[in-house]
Amino acid sequence: MAYTLQQLSDFEDIRTLKHRYFRGIDTADWELVRGLMCKDVTVDYKGGGYRVMTNGVEETMLMLANAFPSNSLAMHHGHMPEITLTGDDTAEGIWYLEDVFISLERNDHTFGTAIYRDRYRREGGSWKIAHTEYERVIEIVYPRDEAGQIHSHMLARTGLKPEERTDVSHLLVWE
Amino acid sequence: MAYTLQQLSDFEDIRTLKHRYFRGIDTADWELVRGLMCKDVTVDYKGGGYRVMTNGVEETMLMLANAFPSNSLAMHHGHMPEITLTGDDTAEGIWYLEDVFISLERNDHTFGTAIYRDRYRREGGSWKIAHTEYERVIEIVYPRDEAGQIHSHMLARTGLKPEERTDVSHLLVWE
Amino acid sequence: MAYTLQQLSDFEDIRTLKHRYFRGIDTADWELVRGLMCKDVTVDYKGGGYRVMTNGVEETMLMLANAFPSNSLAMHHGHMPEITLTGDDTAEGIWYLEDVFISLERNDHTFGTAIYRDRYRREGGSWKIAHTEYERVIEIVYPRDEAGQIHSHMLARTGLKPEERTDVSHLLVWE
Asked: Rounded to two decimals, what is the model's pTM?
């Protein structure tokens, strides 16, 4: 009835893997994020008005870096993991997201929640993200409240500047 | 000074139990939620303006299904567990909730936090919720901001439709 | 490749330590918070417009109790720990904060996120906070929405009353 030391360690490490992912995207630490993903990672994020699909780490990094540029503020908090070990080196995870995304470009404020369904794979001794997808529970887009004074804005410093951005519209379907 | 494998496994499973509960209520997955509760579960949720008390799984399921109907959007994120094992098959847990509840019926938007104090019991090898109660730290009810465009609304699809709802006012005291 | 029982127990206890800290500050349970800190704890919180620095448990308790008085509402939710054991009795932790702070005195509403970098030390068999600092990712200060009806407000009951407050401006730099 009890898990083994190895299984408990795997739960621990898989949780930390995903924790790093969320910290990495909101601080635009792309070096960190890149190291958390399998080379053949696949992504399928089904938003309210969009669907993002990428294949492989290069495409995924391109999408992520352009999704959280310097003129946005982003909070992605992944909660309440339900991890299942499916083999010695494979696992699945369900997470429940709360996200806030403020675009100074579009001047809007998105509040959302979503359920992630991930697959993980151990490679060279480290757990990595092999597949990640989410389905929205809530997504509401508000006009940005301009009475709010922005006192801290890390992405302004760390995110891609307008002239560094790349067209990623081929990875995104607006629905 | 170290926990046993069994104890660490119990922490793991009790956390996952409660994680499933929160995912279940916000997606109206009542089959899932029902399986997480002892037959004689008791609930006592002390809100700002209300108190909900139920006795047994049937009454609890009735209350929950009617609390999160198709014309509402709900986020219940339970954080920062403090689990204490009180016996081989009994445990207690403290959790810290953040919730958002948007009622399209009353046209309001509730933001709240609360401290849960739960009791768990192992039945047939699985941890279940035996008792759950919370006390509010914050509860603020705002008029709904109708400038917000709802792009995703899972409960509209999965929650009880107006004609499926039942009067549960006997389980609820408005204070 | 697997952690030991002791290491897994340490992860568990360090997480619970920090969970208690957050519950303690938002409910103004200063007795609880005091017991979680090393006597020589150091704090360095770099906000958007402020920086708080304290040295030792007395100064830290003074700062905390005055930071969350009876005319404020506070939510501090620490998420997604990344714990590293650095010795038998020392550890480090990264946490990702979401906080809401509503001041009825200044009539404003702060929404923020931050990355904590903590150090922990085991003393007399219990893990305690030896050092804690954070750097803001997001901090936005809105005027308070007075259309919001406050139905629960625990700090009104448990936080320092105006006449009990102390001047802590020497611990705080406004930038």
From this structure: 0.97
Q: What residues of chain B lie within 8 A of the CB of C79, using their CB?
A: 79
Query: Are C46 and C134 within 8 A, CB to CB?
Result: yes
CA distances from B16 to A57, A83, A92, A95, B125 (A): 30, 8, 14, 11, 14
To the nearest whole angstrom, how far is the Cα of C28 from the nearest Cα of chain A?
A: 25
| Tokens 């926990």 -> residue | B3
Q: Where are the alpha helices (DSSP H) in B49-174?
A: 57-67, 154-158
Instruction: Select from B94, B116, B137 the residue whose CB has the most chain C CBs within 10 Å, as the one to mutate to test that interface.
Output: B137
Interface of B with A (CB under 8 A): 4-6, 8-9, 12, 16, 18-20, 22-23, 26-27, 73, 75, 77-79, 98, 100, 102, 125, 145, 147-155
Distances (CA, A) of C142 to A144, B119, C146: 11, 39, 11
Q: Which of B105, A143, B137, A4 is nearest to C155 (CA)?
A: B137
What pLDDT, on a 0 to 100 scale, did the predictor assign at position B167?
95
d(CA C6, CA C12): 10
Q: How far apart are CA A24 and CA A43, in angstroms?
A: 16
Strands B108-123 and A108-123: unpaired
Q: How many helices (H) and strands (E) does chain B have?
A: 4, 8
DSSP classification of residue B71: T
What confidence tens digit (pLDDT) does each residue in A114-130 have?
Answer: 999 999 999 999 999 99
Cβ A27–C112 below 8 Å, yes or no?
no
Q: What is the model's pLDDT at position A47? A: 94
| CA–CA separation, A73 and A153 (whole Å) | 7
pLDDT above 90 (res A49): no
**Cβ-proximal residues to C125 (8 Å cutoff; 6+ apart), any chain:** B1
CA distance A54 to A40: 10
Mutate to test the interface with B, among A137, A141, A173, A175 (most CBs of B within 10 A): A137
Residue/partner pairs of C31-37 with CB below 8 Å, 24 or more apart: C33/C61, C33/C64, C34/C61, C36/C128, C36/C129, C37/C128, C37/C129
Q: How many helices (H) and strands (E) does chain C have?
A: 4, 8
Q: What angle do CA B151, A78, A107 make, to 5 degrees?
A: 40
| Chain A closest-CA separation from residue B154 CA (Å) | 5
- Could you tell me which chain C residue has the CA closest to the CA of B12? C12
Domains and CATH numbers, chain A: 5-174 (3.10.450.50)
> What integer pLDDT is reported at residue A175 of this predicted model?
77
Number of A/C CB contacts below 8 angstroms equals 92
